Amino acid sequence: MDDAAIVCRGLRKTYPQGVEAVRGLDLAVPRGSCFGLLGPNGAGKTTTVEILEGLLEKTSGEVEVLGRRWEDSAREIRERIGVSLQETRLAEKLQVLETLRLFRSFYRSGLDPAEAMELVGLSEKAKERVGRLSGGQRQRLAVATAMVGNPELLFLDEPTTGLDPQARRQLWDVLRAFRTEGRTIVLTTHYMDEAERLCDEIAIVDRGQRIALGTPKSLIGSVGGDHVIEVDFPSADMSDRAEALAKGWPQVQSAHRSGTTLEWNVRSLTETLPDVLRRLEEAGLTLAELRTRQASLEDVFVKLTGRHLREESAIPHL
Amino acid sequence: MKSPRSPIFELILSRLREFWREPEALFWVYGFPILLIVALGLAFPDEAPRPAVDVASLPGHETAAAALRSGGDIDVVVNSLEVARARHRSERTDLVVIPEGEGYVYLYDPSRPEDHLAKVMADSAIQRAKGRPDPVMTRGETVKLPGSRYIDWLLPGLVGMNIMGGGLWGVGFVLVDMRVRKLLKRFRATPMRRSDFLLAILGSRVAFMIPEVFTILLIGKLLFGAPLGGAPLLLALVILAGSICFCGLGLLLACRTERLETASGLTNLAMMPMWILSGIFFSAERFPDAIQPFVRALPLTQLNFALRGVILEGQGLSDIAFPLVMLVGVGGIAFALALRWFRWT
Ligand SMILES: Nc1ncnc2c1ncn2[C@@H]1O[C@H](COP(=O)(O)OP(=O)(O)O)[C@@H](O)[C@H]1O
Ligand SMILES: [Mg+2]
Hints:
The structure holds two protein chains of two kinds. By secondary structure, chain A is α/β, with parallel strands linked by helices. Chain A has eleven helices and 13 strands. Chain A has a six-stranded mixed sheet, sandwiched between helices. By secondary structure, chain B is an alpha/beta fold. A four-stranded mixed sheet of chain B has the order 2-1-3-4. In chain B, strand 1 (52-56), helix 3 and strand 2 (75-79) form a beta-alpha-beta unit. Classes of the chains: A alpha/beta, B alpha/beta. The structure holds adenosine-5'-diphosphate (ADP) and magnesium ion (MG). Magnesium ion binds next to helix 1 of chain A.
């Protein structure tokens, strides 16, 4: 499998305290692609990539990175990959350029530190101390330290978590630019829009297992319907009746409920919406709210697990 | 494009930069020892000891007081017996002279050298005033022995203490802090070699140590005229050996420690016996023979021997060979073990 950047079969990781973080994961990442691991917090994404990065021992399973195994080619693999961890606090007293020079010195070949700075748009901050950078700039520096060895394969664990929308978009541009010359990116995220926009292929993981695999389009398509109608009712009783009623409608490809809100996936809004509204009215059900939107990976996750991807929207994130 | 420098060089450079850009660290390394030297220099001034003697105000005290004052070497005060006793208990006076009939009673604590000196001088003055002849003519010729003052003796001890603290904290704490910040894990993901990394941490600390130590000695010389004795090269060698030893031990303490609290606990635990036993503030040779083997087995004891030997007595390489070998040996073993047991995460 020389065309694969990563092959991983039956990967398992049980932490010493007994937590089964990864439970039999299969992955194959083609060279030159951007591959996303999408899943909620605690799904096992970090554990998985840290095993792929050679930072964590696996419990069992097979892992090949760039056609090599960690057991016998660790140094060679490290020369050829770049890593940005979920959380690293780089030395705050060092300047941006100094930090990149340091990381560059670890590799036999690589980019000029100035070039790496340019890639992530930090050239103006060359002499700035890391401690004075904004969150987005720090994250871009972390990515630059991963790129400075000119890696064939780049790992990014939650690269945009905690960043504002503008900083996220800047980083996405950096990653898109990097993906020339057949270089591979593996990233983890719990943002469905990030996975949708950046990745060629996505594995959705939950509780240490892969629950879906495909391109963003095919995954969204699998929900059956590109559109979602969200309806809310003034009482739980009305929601119950509407939920029961909708079970008999052929236009609804799949349905989901949270509280009094019902979500129906449909193929075509123009054909379905008037019909749905008419039927609800006939049944004497008044709407408190009506929304429609494009189906997303979020809906895929909801359909597969019955839960939302970003549970932390309800629980404040620390 | 400039070709990149070796990882070990870049790593050392980074550590040096981080250190210089950290004002708190600079204070602890340079400011604190200087303050300590100044404070101790003031507390133990360079003066000939002057005994303080109280005369109890009982009949006959005038004669005694006059006799004691005649030589001019003794500070004499007359107090009631109770006051004089109280002053002696609180060590404000070294001796109480209590008139008793035609003679005197000396109240003193024989375990205090000051009391002894006061008693001998007071007795001599009183006897002479009563007409005791000196059968032989004697005269004193005073000289100033270098290194005989407490501050002179103390300085090498402070240097030793600084090398110990710098090695154990400067290496151990820095390493654990990097581990806590996940920076070690990040380094692990690069092809950088473990031995390069550990050598760089060690090398940067040793590089700090030499100017640090010479600063302390220079301050001692400028403020108190303390001797800088011995050959500078030999002194640098001793400092180097001490740094290797304590940096190695610092590395060993930190090689698996995951929390800063654990690191500081371990470091304090390692330093405690040496603080007490290794002769920083008073001579290690004062401890009973029974525990001397243990005292001498402590690296700081050996480092202080070597430092005092070179700085105060101008000893040569052959005199301090044993301490040097021991320090480098302990450091080397600690480094080898740390290299083996080291964990990045
Ligand atoms: N060092 C560890 N020791 C024990 N359990 C861990 C450790 N790291 C992670 N876990 C647990 O493993 C599971 C997966 O964690 P993680 O891989 O960090 O998930 P994600 O990156 O998807 O949020 C979680 O239940 C987490 O609590
Ligand atoms: Mg994670």
